Amino acid sequence: MSFLIGPKVTRFDTCAQFAKEAQLGERDLIVTNEYIYRPFFEELKLSCQVMFQEKYGSGEPTDVMIDAMCADASALSFDRVIAIGGGSVMDTAKFLTLRQGSPVLDLVDGKITPERVKALFCVPTTCGTGSEVTCLSAIDQTTRGTKVGFGTPAMYADEAVLIPELLSSLPLKFFATSSIDAFIHAIESYLSPGASRESKLFSMEAMQLILRGYLRMEREGVDVRFEESENFLTASMYAGIAFGNAGTGAVHAMSYPLGGNYHVPHGEANYAMFRGVFGKYMEKDPGGRIAELNEKLAATLDCARDEVYVVIQRLFDNVLPAKPLHEYGMTEEDCENFADIVEQKQVRLTKNNYVKLGRDDYAAIYRGLY
Ligand SMILES: [Fe+2]
């Protein structure tokens, strides 16, 4: 069992402080979105080179997008990549730090050995992916019709930079999908057979920060989340550290076919699967490590142990109501087909399940949520 925090973690109150401290300048390549750059960085009049990711396509990063960005970056001269954005921006920027970041599918297939040649700063603008502290990148392989998680130690950031100011323009829906994704990173990694004493510390603190934030939002209204920005950014990073070491499991595995086929945002697809997977875990082995987890969550939520998942759903539904799967377009046939896909193609994740689940369990979970 080992435990690693890849990057150095730094915190700033404002983007201006970060720019000054990091001495951002002409040898830096900022990878971001225009809607982030304009309000937060334009007035700083930096001499950095800038790439806007949306010029290469929308949504989650694809192999085609990453290849195009690597081609354009290869014509530039820079020493550091400053990735400022959500998971898509950070996951893409990681490839720009490699000697040969494309063709990305050759990296995925092991035909290119990843070799790091540029420094990388990751500055998250959502509170979900934890990509700033993982060496992972989620890639939609458009040419192959599936999504894949690619990871190499060569893609760890040198610095993960937390700036709460950046959450101030995050719309409620993106706040909800990202923070719920972070919660699921934390809870799945806590129950993973790969969890260590260290990773569980980060998982538990992440869950507590997120649940306390949601309790406060229920009491005081959703806008109070802006006062909790630093806590949510911290929780997301801690959850990233935890799952980067211990992995995520069935919720993520089962959400991928839903997200991929019906274009449901990652965090929302996870939330759609969450109660079904945890219901199955409780049915199969309620007395194992999940009992210890539930006891701790009950204390945080000030509720009975057998009410933990009801209360969590109430808190999350307050911001992002869970929907049955058919409302996303899923069919009854999909319940069976997706179960086959999870059983056959998501072993990388399902090996982290709390209890062993099989194809028929996955089908039953999909049907139960349908
Ligand atoms: Fe996730």
Short descriptors:
binds fe (ii) ion; 8 strands; 6-stranded parallel β-sheet; Dehydroquinate synthase-like, alpha domain; alpha/beta; two-stranded antiparallel ribbon; 370 residues
Secondary structure layout plus pairing:
Blueprint: E1 8-11, H1 15-21, E2 28-32, H2 34-40, E3 49-52, H3 63-73, E4 80-85, H4 87-93, H5 104-108, E5 119-124, E6 136-141, E7 146-151, E8 159-162, H6 172-191, H7 197-220, H8 229-246, H9 250-262, H10 266-284, H11 289-301, H12 308-317, H13 332-345, H14 347-350, H15 359-369
Parallel strand pairs: 1-8, 2-3, 2-4, 4-5, 5-8
Antiparallel strand pairs: 6-7
Bound molecules: fe (ii) ion.
Explain what the structure shows.
- The chain has helices at 15-21, 34-40, 63-73, 87-93, 104-108, 172-191, 197-220, 229-246, 250-262, 266-284, 289-301, 308-317, 332-345, 347-350, 359-369; strands spanning 8-11, 28-32, 49-52, 80-85, 119-124, 136-141, 146-151, 159-162.
- It has 370 residues and is α/β, with parallel strands linked by helices.
- The chain folds into two domains: 8-166, 3-Layer(aba) Sandwich (Rossmann fold); 171-369, Dehydroquinate synthase-like - alpha domain (Dehydroquinate synthase-like, alpha domain, Up-down Bundle), CATH 1.20.1090.
- The strands form two sheets. It has a six-stranded parallel β-sheet, sandwiched between helices.
- Helix 2 links the parallel strand 2 (28-32) and strand 3.
- Helix 6 runs parallel beside helix 10 and helix 13 (332-345) packs antiparallel against helix 15 (359-369).
- The longest helix is centred in the middle third of the chain and has 24 residues, at 197-220.
- The two termini are 38 Å apart.
- The model has no long low-confidence stretch (mean pLDDT 96).
- Residues 181, 185, 252, 266, 270 line the site of fe (ii) ion (FE2).
